[in-house]
Each structure stands twice: as structure tokens, then as C-alpha cells.
Design a protein that fits this description.
This protein has 595 residues and is mainly α.
């Protein structure tokens, strides 16, 4: 009894703590806010750790000073510039070779997880992506770390949410908290991180998600700044004043950036498709891509890594038009080759860097358009935001980034006009962001982070009735009328001698279209409808509704598979539409915070 008495308080404490952690986020917004705060701490630590590791790799591999950025440093050893990306490609190839045999399932990113899987994201897969991103960036491949940041932070958030057994909607919000914290910590921009989550990860802004997402972004940024105060985001210097005449060239720059963004995304897809169609194994492609990146780096080391150092160099110095154009083409080629050949990373910061180059290029032509007189740094800000929204998406995300790096409200309004223009051009002419374009190439139909996974989960086998009435297809009409009198049931499914589906018979048709004693010995098969129209249990409600429309039927049989066609149930159009509408309304209420 004494032993049980001693154990009881600790057991009770553990039980209460576990139950409290699980029920608090499910029952109150305060609990979800606390969960978001913890995710923010994890995001800040993850960003700081990945940044430290890659900066250390840059210093060791390229011989840099601790505070130097790779793309902004002077590296005199041209052989090293060539050899480092090749070595990184070879190391990444080994990782890909091992993964191809150990972990065959595709890696899911936060946007796909929230759109299709209710926020379910493998932490192991996220750590694998982070390691690949670190190797790619650390050896100089022209990719940023933002993809790794958001992947790890969102993976931790999803794992935490799974332990808390959160609902689908709350899980998606918590994954958004992870992404918000990662971007906020990476750019010293909490508002940018929050709206990155709303626009790109969660897919909607709601009152229910506002508090946990913003808290996560603020805390992640605080943690990252405490651990690495020197990494303070982007400094654009003096941007001058904005006058109404500046809106005309800004809108034109937005149009240009929209077109360039489309070309850049198609260039990456072209490199990937070319590599896929070639006979080169997947684990060899990064080494080939590293060779090309190394050759480009021998021309200008500014193409290496994400481009943080190169961005500040080009913002702080005057560069000729030819120099800006050559550097833009080199960076665009290096980024497309890096991602297309298999290096892991994203185009977030690369698009900011290339947008700044486009903006400074545009500054040479701006004086000839109206009476605008913006400083080149101002055009750089407009360009980086416009090209980034063309590639990444998120108009408000990029607008708030401009606000947080400039602190100038008139400049932010100018950026907003250009960003909306660029976004409109991409949506109208292309229809995808970089992430959703890659999903499209894989055969997915994801256009945004809106939750469409519930539609896939609402499958025919969950909607159908299994207690169906069946009859042999060779049964006589007389026997059928005796077995199924009027009023006994509305529909009977026919099966042949092998048990395969043979059609649907409406009982009122059999009784209403036959005169007593006339052709009663005929087979009931002559009354069969929809002999070739069937549903499979794995179809979702949307596919079922489309088939009902196509066949103009009110009910269809559900069979086991296309070959055996064993009847396992019946589904009506009215029930499908009712359940689809109920789930659609429930999903809307979850998004709006009503549930």
C-alpha cells in the first residue's frame, strides 16, 4: 500500500499533464496559442541551427571569414569554385542513391501536407529534406535555405500536433505556425512570416488562426535574433521618396517581373524534364548540375548559394547595365540548373535577388517613362517583391516584406501596386506558383494550400449502401415479379452466372410495362440499365458526382474492381450530393472559426 501511495502522485501528475496538453489546444484558442508559441521556439532554433551549419560549411570549404556571406565574398581560387559544387553534387547523389532503396515514398512539403493530408507531415522526411538542403547550399549550389527552414519547422509542428491529437483544422493551423516561424526567423520579419503562412501554407486568413500564427512568428524571430543577432535580414539602405508619377514605371516593372517569373519557372521545369528524359541516373544528375554551377561560379561567385551577400553588394554599389544583365542571366541559369538537376532547395531568396537585379536594370530605363525619379534602390525593392510574388506567390507576404525591410509606408503602397500587377499577370497567363507548378508536373491538381484533401477522403466506399438487393440476370420476368413485388424495393442489381455486375433494374418498370401473361418467361436482363456504368470504392465524391452527370443516372452500382466487378454496394446521386454539401459546409465553418 505504501508503494502504491508513493507512485500515485507522480502517475496522477503525468496523466493530468498529458491530458491537459491534449485537451487544452482542442478546447480553447488559448491552448492553440500556447502550442503555436512552442512551435515558434522550435522554428527559431531550427533556423538558427541550419544557418550556423551552412555558414560554417561555407567558411571551411571556401575559406571565408566567419561574418562573410558566400555569394558576396571574393574567392580567388577558381578551381575551388568549380570543385565545391561538384563535390556537393556527388555527396547529394550518394544520399539520393541510399534514399531510393531505403525510403521510396515521395517527400511531402508543407503546402501539399495542408492541401491533401490535413497537415500530416513526416518529421523524418522533413529532416531528410533539411539535410539535403544543407548539403546543397553548403557546397554552393544556387538554392536558398528557406525550403529547409519551413520543412523542418512544419514537420516539428505536425509531429507535435499528432501527439496532441489535434483536429484536422487545428493541425493545419499548427503547420502554418511552423512555416510562419521559419520565415519570420529567416528574414527578421514577423509580419512576412505570418502572411506567408496565411497565403501559402494555410490558404486562408481567419480570426481563429491569427493569434497562434502571429505568436509563433514573433517568438521564432525573437529566438533567432537572440541566437544570431547579426543575421538581421535585408538592408536596402536609402530608398528616397515616392511621388504619384512613380506608379507608372512601378506597374510596368510588375508586368516585366510577372513575365520573367513565368519564364524562370518554365526554365526549371525544362531542365527537370530534360534530365528525366535522359538516360542519366537520378543520383548522377546533381554532380553534373554541380559542374555547370561551378563553371558559372568561375565567371561570377555571386551565383553561389542563396544570394544574401550578392544582394547587399549589388544594392550598395553602382553596377553597369551590362554587369547587372550578365549577373541576372548567370544567377537564373545557376538556379534553374541547381533545382532541375536534383539539388534540394527553393527559389525564395534567389527570386528576391534576381528581382533586385531586374529593378536596378529597370532604373536605367525609368527616367524615359513619365517623370519618375525613384532611386535605384527603390526599384530594387519593387523588383524583388514583384519577381518573388511571381515565383513564390503571396502578394501580401511580399508587400509586408517590403514594409519590414524599408519601414516606409509610401514605398510599401507602391510595392503593393506592383505586386498585384505581377500576381495578376502570372495568374492570368500561367495559373501557378513555383510550388503548385511542380505539383502540376507530378499530376496533382493543387492550385493553392486550400484544404482539398477532405474531398479525397470522402470516398464511395464511405458513402455507399452495402445492403443491396441482387438478382440473377437470367431470372425470368415472372420470377422477378414474384420475388420483388411493387413497393418491396426501388432498385435491384443484376449479376451474371459468374457473379459479375450486369446492370440495374427499376422494379416499377418491370411491373408497370408488362401485361399479365405477356413475355413473362423472358429474361429480366432486357430491363437492365447502366450495364457499363459503375463506381469503384476508391473514387471520391467529386468523381462520383461527375459520373452521375455523365450517365444521367440517379443511382449506380459499386463494384470491387474493374476486372472482377463483384457488386459490393449501391450509391445514389441525392445521398452523394447531400454528404458532399455537408462536408463542404463543415470545412467552410472550420476555416471561418465557427467550429
Amino acid at each position: 500500500m505504501k508503494r502504491l501511495h508513493k507512485l500515485r502522485p507522480s502517475v496522477l501528475y503525468r496523466f493530468l499533464s498529458l491530458e491537459l496538453m491534449r485537451t487544452l489546444p482542442r478546447r480553447s484558442e488559448f491552448g492553440l496559442m500556447l502550442a503555436g508559441a512552442l512551435v515558434g521556439v522550435a522554428a527559431g532554433l531550427s533556423v538558427s541551427a541550419m544557418t550556423y551549419v551552412t555558414r560554417t560549411m561555407h567558411a571551411l570549404i571556401f575559406g571565408l571569414e566567419p561574418d562573410e556571406r558566400l555569394s558576396g565574398a571574393t574567392v580567388d581560387d577558381r578551381i575551388l569554385l568549380l570543385a565545391a559544387p561538384i563535390a556537393g553534387g556527388m555527396l547529394l547523389g550518394v544520399l539520393l542513391f541510399v534514399l531510393a532503396r531505403w525510403r521510396k515514398r515521395p517527400l511531402v512539403d508543407p503546402i501539399e501536407a495542408n492541401a491533401l493530408h490535413g497537415g500530416r507531415l513526416s518529421l523524418t522526411d522533413s529532416l531528410i529534406v533539411a539535410v539535403q538542403n544543407i548539403v546543397s547550399n553548403g557546397f554552393g549550389a544556387s538554392v536558398g535555405l528557406e525550403a529547409g527552414y519551413t520543412q523542418v519547422a512544419s514537420g516539428i509542428a505536425s509531429k507535435f500536433g499528432s501527439k496532441l491529437k489535434l483536429r484536422r483544422a487545428d493541425m493545419r493551423i499548427l503547420v502554418g505556425c511552423g512555416a510562419a516561424g521559419a520565415i519570420a526567423a529567416a528574414f527578421n520579419a514577423p509580419l512576412t512570416g505570418a502572411f506567408y503562412a496565411f497565403e501559402l501554407i494555410i490558404g486562408a486568413y481567419t480570426i481563429a488562426s491569427l493569434t497562434p500564427v502571429v505568436v509563433s512568428a514573433l517568438i521564432a524571430n525573437l529566438v533567432a535574433r537572440l541566437l544570431a543577432a547579426s543575421d538581421a535580414g535585408i538592408d536596402v539602405g536609402s530608398i528616397g521618396s515616392v511621388v504619384p508619377a512613380d506608379y507608372v514605371p512601378a506597374l510596368l516593372l510588375g508586368i516585366v517581373c510577372g513575365g520573367v517569373g513565368i519564364l524562370l519557372m518554365q526554365a526549371v521545369a525544362f531542365v527537370e524534364e530534360t534530365a528525366r528524359k535522359s538516360s542519366i541516373p537520378g543520383y548522377v544528375r546533381p554532380a553534373i548540375g554541380g559542374t555547370i554551377v561551378g563553371l558559372l561560379a568561375m565567371i561570377s561567385p555571386q551565383v553561389l548559394s542563396g544570394g544574401h551577400g550578392a544582394l547587399h553588394v549589388n544594392l550598395e554599389t553602382d553596377v553597369s547595365m551590362a554587369g547587372l544583365l550578365v549577373l541576372f542571366l548567370l544567377k537564373a541559369t545557376a538556379s534553374a540548373v541547381s533545382i532541375g538537376s536534383g539539388f534540394r532547395g527553393g527559389l525564395f531568396f534567389a527570386s528576391l535577388f534576381m528581382g533586385a537585379l531586374l529593378g536596378k536594370l529597370f532604373a536605367f530605363a525609368a527616367p524615359f517613362i513619365g517623370h519618375a525619379a525613384l532611386a535605384p534602390a527603390s526599384y530594387a525593392v519593387v523588383g524583388m517583391s514583384s519577381l518573388a510574388v511571381a515565383v513564390i506567390g503571396g502578394p501580401l507576404t511580399m508587400t509586408f516584406l517590403a514594409l519590414e525591410i524599408t519601414g516606409d509606408f509610401p514605398m510599401t503602397v507602391l510595392v503593393l501596386a506592383a505586386v498585384i500587377t505581377s500576381s495578376f499577370i502570372v495568374r492570368t497567363l500561367f495559373g501557378y506558383s513555383f510550388a503548385t507548378w511542380r505539383f502540376h508536373l507530378r499530376g496533382e491538381t493543387i492550385r493553392s494550400a486550400h484544404d482539398v484533401g477532405w474531398i479525397r477522403n470522402l470516398t464511395v466506399d464511405k458513402l455507399m449502401r452495402a445492403d443491396v438487393r441482387t438478382a440473377a440476370a437470367d431470372m425470368s420476368v415472372k420470377d422477378f415479379r414474384a420475388k420483388f413485388p411493387i413497393g418491396s424495393t426501388q432498385r435491384v442489381i443484376l449479376v451474371d452466372e459468374n457473379g459479375k455486375y450486369a446492370g440495374i433494374v427499376l422494379v416499377p418498370d418491370v411491373h408497370g410495362n408488362l401485361v399479365e401473361g405477356e413475355n413473362e418467361g423472358a429474361s429480366i436482363r432486357s430491363f437492365a440499365r447502366h450495364r457499363n456504368d459503375i463506381l469503384l470504392p476508391t473514387m471520391n465524391a467529386k468523381q462520383a458526382v461527375a459520373l452521375f452527370d455523365e450517365t444521367e443516372s440517379e443511382a449506380l452500382a459499386v463494384v470491387s474492381d474493374m476486372i472482377g466487378q463483384k457488386v459490393i454496394g449501391l450509391l445514389t446521386e441525392s445521398h452523394t450530393l447531400r454528404r458532399y454539401s455537408e462536408e463542404l459546409d463543415r470545412n467552410r465553418r472550420e476555416i471561418s472559426g465557427e467550429l
